UniProtKB/TrEMBL annotation:
dksA C4-type zinc finger segments: 115-139
Pfam families on file: zf-dskA_traR (PF01258)
Comp. bias (Low complexity): 8-23
UniProt feature coiled coil, ranges: none
Domain called Zinc finger DksA/TraR C4-type: residue spans: 110-145
Top-rank taxon, per record: Bacteria
Composition-biased stretches (Basic and acidic residues): 28-43
UniProt keyword Cell inner membrane present: no
This protein's record includes keyword tRNA processing: no
Keyword line: Metal-binding, Zinc, Zinc-finger
Spans annotated as Disordered: 1-43, 61-84
Protein known as: TraR/DksA family transcriptional regulator
Amino acid sequence: MAKTADSKTATEAAGTKTGTGKAPRARSAAETEKIRAALSERRDELRLEYDQTMSEIAELQRDRLTDSAGDDQADTGTKTFEREQEISLANSIQERISQVERALERLDDGTYGWCERCGNTIPVERLAAFPSATLCVTCKQLEERR
């Protein structure tokens, strides 16, 4: 199915492909707004997910306070493990919210789509897969090897 200009995703509007040695074309105001809208929508989705996770943690805590009488060590360990998993999930969601907010800041200051380490453009394909990317593929691979 062919995409029309209206169905083009915000991240596809982020710039041109790299590898040609050319600087990416400047984004139009409409393209920038599409990217901003997509990032803002993702941030809002993550905030909702975070709020739901925090509600689940609070509910688990309330349940543990009332149901913990008579628990053996295995029950206590299971409940502790579940709580730690929920907290880890909440922290992960919070980190993703921070990444999206950082992408929005980079969009505002004109550095969105540029690698923070080497200064090259981040390929549109990478931004489509991970809109809050701050490193090009090469720099990200180098970072992960460390």
